Amino acid sequence: MSDSMQVDRSDFDRVMVPNYAPVDMVPVRGLGSRLWDQQGRDYIDLAGGIAVNALGHAHPGLVEALTEQAGKLWHVSNVLTNEPALRLAAKLIEATFAEKVFFANSGAEANEAAFKLARRWAHETAGPDKHEIIACTNSFHGRTLFTVSVGGQPKYSQGFGPAIEGISHVPYNDLTALEQLMSARTCAVVIEPIQGEGGVIPATDAYLQGVRALCDKHNALLIFDEVQSGMGRTGKLFAYMHSGVVPDILTSAKSLGGGFPIAAMLTSDRIAQHFGVGTHGSTYGGNPLGCAVAERVLDIVNTPELLQGVDARHQLLAEGLMALSAEFPVFEQIRGRGLLIGAVLTEAWRGRARDIQEAAQRHGLLVLQAGPDVMRLAPSLVIPEADIREALQRLRAALASLAG
Ligand SMILES: *Cc1c(COP(=O)(O)O)cnc(C)c1O
C-alpha cells in the first residue's frame, strides 16, 4: 500500500459495502465550482456535495483556517473544551435565536440530539406520557435508527427491526392534519422549512406560523431541521428567518462545515438545561479542526454581500432553467429558495431525473436529483456567474442528447 497504488471506479464494487451507486468517474481535485476527474476532465459542480460545499472547493479562507488549526490542535475530546468550539458557539448564538449550542459530526447526529433532548425535556417537565414526536410525510432527517424512524420515507426504516415508538407522520404543509394529531402527549413537531430530499418543497409561511401556534397551545417543542436549508443556502443565514417563525431547537450540518464534517444543535437556555452533565455526548463533537473551519464558513457566509449574492444567483439559474424549458419542455416548475433549487419535471419527462443526472455528467456537469421527478441544484453560494452560464450550456447539451 502506498500513494502510488492505482485505484478507479471499478474498485468500488470490490472494496465497498454496496449501499451507494456512485457515478462513473472519480474526482481527484476541486477548485471553486469546478471538479476534475482522474482523466483530467472538468465538471461544473451544481451539486455542491449535496448542499455541503457552501464556498466551493478549496476555498482559500477555509484552507487557511483548516491548515492553521491543523498545526495547533486537532482533537482533545469533551473532557476538555477548546477555543474554536467556544468561538463558533458564541457566533452562532449571536447570529440566531439560540442561547446554547451542542456540536455533533453529522446532520443525523444533530437531529438525534434534538429528538433526545425534546424527549428528555418532556419527560422531566411533564412525565413519560409526553413523548410523541410528529414529523412530516416524505421528510428526511438522517440515517440513524431514530432519525429514519422520524423521517417520513418508510423505505429508509423498513427491514431494520422494531421501529422506535411514539412517532407519527402528517402531510407537509397541511395544518389541519397536524391539528388533529396534536395533544398533550405531543413532545415535539419536526419540520424542514424546505423539504430537501423530499423534492425541494418549501413550507408556506402560514403553515410555519400555524405549526408554531399549535406547538405553543399543546406545550410541544418546535424543531426545525435546517441541515440542508441553513447556513446561507436560501439567502438568509437560516431559512426560518424568512418566515419570522422561531423554533425551540434548530439543527445545522451540511454547509456548516463547508465540507468538513461538523453539525450543531441550537436551542434556548430553558430547554438546554435538560441535557445535564452525562446525559448525552460525542467523542468528536466540537473538535477544534471542525469548529475552526465552521467558524470561518460562518464569518464568510453571514455577510449581507454574500447573502444577496445567493438571491442574484438564484435569479440567474431560475431564468436559465425556464429558458431551457422553453426549448425542451422539461421543467414545469422551478421551486425552492436561494441556491436550493428544485426543477420539477413535466409529465413527458417524469421519472427521468436520474437520466438527466447521468447525461449531465457525460456533458461535464454535476447535478442532483430529489426523487425521480425533480432535478435538484445546490451549488456553492459563491459560484461565479460565468460558471452558471457555462453550466446552463452544458445542461442544454445534455437535454438535447436525451431529447434527440
Ligand atoms: C442531509 C440531511 C440530514 C442528514 O445529514 P447527515 O449529515 O447525512 O447525517 C438530515 N436532515 C436533512 C434535512 C438533510 O438534508
From TrEMBL:
<feature type="binding site">
    <location>
        <begin position="107"/>
        <end position="108"/>
    </location>
    <ligand>
        <name>pyridoxal 5'-phosphate</name>
    </ligand>
</feature>
<feature type="binding site">
    <location>
        <position position="282"/>
    </location>
    <ligand>
        <name>N(2)-acetyl-L-ornithine</name>
    </ligand>
</feature>
<dbReference type="InterPro" id="IPR004636">
    <property type="entry name" value="AcOrn/SuccOrn_fam"/>
</dbReference>
<feature type="modified residue" description="N6-(pyridoxal phosphate)lysine">
    <location>
        <position position="254"/>
    </location>
</feature>
<feature type="binding site">
    <location>
        <position position="283"/>
    </location>
    <ligand>
        <name>pyridoxal 5'-phosphate</name>
    </ligand>
</feature>
<feature type="binding site">
    <location>
        <position position="140"/>
    </location>
    <ligand>
        <name>pyridoxal 5'-phosphate</name>
    </ligand>
</feature>
<dbReference type="InterPro" id="IPR050103">
    <property type="entry name" value="Class-III_PLP-dep_AT"/>
</dbReference>
<feature type="binding site">
    <location>
        <position position="143"/>
    </location>
    <ligand>
        <name>N(2)-acetyl-L-ornithine</name>
    </ligand>
</feature>
<dbReference type="InterPro" id="IPR049704">
    <property type="entry name" value="Aminotrans_3_PPA_site"/>
</dbReference>
<keyword id="KW-0808">Transferase</keyword>
<dbReference type="GO" id="GO:0042802">
    <property type="term" value="F:identical protein binding"/>
</dbReference>
<dbReference type="InterPro" id="IPR017652">
    <property type="entry name" value="Ac/SucOrn_transaminase_bac"/>
</dbReference>
<dbReference type="GO" id="GO:0003992">
    <property type="term" value="F:N2-acetyl-L-ornithine:2-oxoglutarate 5-aminotransferase activity"/>
</dbReference>
<keyword id="KW-0963">Cytoplasm</keyword>
<comment type="pathway">
    <text>Amino-acid biosynthesis; L-arginine biosynthesis; N(2)-acetyl-L-ornithine from L-glutamate: step 4/4.</text>
</comment>
<dbReference type="GO" id="GO:0005737">
    <property type="term" value="C:cytoplasm"/>
</dbReference>
<keyword id="KW-0028">Amino-acid biosynthesis</keyword>
<keyword id="KW-0663">Pyridoxal phosphate</keyword>
<dbReference type="InterPro" id="IPR015424">
    <property type="entry name" value="PyrdxlP-dep_Trfase"/>
</dbReference>
<feature type="binding site">
    <location>
        <begin position="225"/>
        <end position="228"/>
    </location>
    <ligand>
        <name>pyridoxal 5'-phosphate</name>
    </ligand>
</feature>
<dbReference type="InterPro" id="IPR015421">
    <property type="entry name" value="PyrdxlP-dep_Trfase_major"/>
</dbReference>
<dbReference type="GO" id="GO:0006526">
    <property type="term" value="P:L-arginine biosynthetic process"/>
</dbReference>
<comment type="subunit">
    <text>Homodimer.</text>
</comment>
<dbReference type="GO" id="GO:0030170">
    <property type="term" value="F:pyridoxal phosphate binding"/>
</dbReference>
<protein>
    <recommendedName>
        <fullName>Acetylornithine aminotransferase</fullName>
        <ecNumber>2.6.1.11</ecNumber>
    </recommendedName>
</protein>
<comment type="similarity">
    <text>Belongs to the class-III pyridoxal-phosphate-dependent aminotransferase family. ArgD subfamily.</text>
</comment>
<dbReference type="Pfam" id="PF00202">
    <property type="entry name" value="Aminotran_3"/>
</dbReference>
<dbReference type="InterPro" id="IPR015422">
    <property type="entry name" value="PyrdxlP-dep_Trfase_small"/>
</dbReference>
<keyword id="KW-0055">Arginine biosynthesis</keyword>
<keyword id="KW-0032">Aminotransferase</keyword>
<dbReference type="InterPro" id="IPR005814">
    <property type="entry name" value="Aminotrans_3"/>
</dbReference>
